[in-house]
Design goal:
The protein has about 220 residues and is an alpha+beta fold. It contains four helices and 15 strands. The strands form two sheets. Strands 1, 2, 3, 4, 5, 7, 9, 10, 13 and 15 form a ten-stranded antiparallel beta sheet that branches. The chain is globular, with a radius of gyration of 18 Å.
Length: about 220
């Protein structure tokens, strides 16, 4: 009985420690998700923000982004685990598996609700999409505030440079094929001052949303 009570107490403590990120996020479940009605992917693993001070977003040139963001820790074609902790430099940060309540994922709110740095930061995000068959000739379509870099299965897909606001379908990749089985999307969003958010979907050759896949962070 003592052991059972002890386990119950620990479980209750863990449940109580879960961060409340409403009204912008809810914790994701083990059941695969679908893109929303417009094709936007709302289920993501989000890493707590990496401190990278920048007084201005005007420094986010292509060359700067490739120097800062294009590395194996950010672009790895693997899926992190919910609750996994990683050490980047002097920081120990945790991954969170979340469903966004909006089509644009509110990274600034994620950081502030967790009482983490929210200016001069890099956000890393990841998710997996599972396809029952190959889906050829699609484009990854992204908007972000501010600059960002995106990979599909470890290969660069989209680079958004400069000081920009989040606009849906702001930049698109070349033609891609979503392979039968699991495909890993990774992103790195960097911002100095200001808000941070992003949105991502896939469009077919007619510019229509692609939604015949499921989304998972497990």
């Amino acid at each position: 009985m003592v052991l059972i009570l002890g386990i119950t107490a620990v479980s209750a403590a863990r449940k109580k420690a879960q961060p409340d990120l409403s009204p912008y996020f809810t914790g994701s479940t083990t059941t695969p998700a679908q893109p929303d009605s417009e094709g936007f992917i709302r289920r993501w693993l989000i890493l707590e923000p990496i401190e990278k001070p920048n007084r201005s977003n005007t420094v986010f040139t292509d060359s700067y982004l490739r120097e800062v963001l294009d590395n194996k820790d950010f672009s790895a074609a693997t899926l992190p685990r919910d609750g996994e902790k990683v050490k980047l430099g002097k920081q120990t940060l945790q991954w969170h598996s979340l469903d966004s309540e909006k089509f644009n994922v509110k990274l600034f709110r994620f950081a502030t609700l967790l009482e983490k740095p929210h200016y001069g930061v890099i956000f890393l995000v990841a998710t997996a999409i599972d396809c029952e068959e190959d889906i050829p000739d699609v484009r990854m379509s992204v908007g972000s505030n501010s600059a960002s870099m995106w990979w599909l299965d470890g290969e660069e897909a989209v680079l958004l440079s400069g000081d920009r606001r989040m606009v849906q379908d702001d930049c698109m990749s070349r033609r891609l094929t979503l392979r039968k089985g699991r495909n890993i999307i990774r992103g790195a969003i960097i911002n100095g001052p200001g808000m941070s958010d992003f949105c991502l979907r896939f469009l077919n050759e007619k510019g229509e949303p692609v939604n015949n896949f499921t989304v998972s962070t497990k």
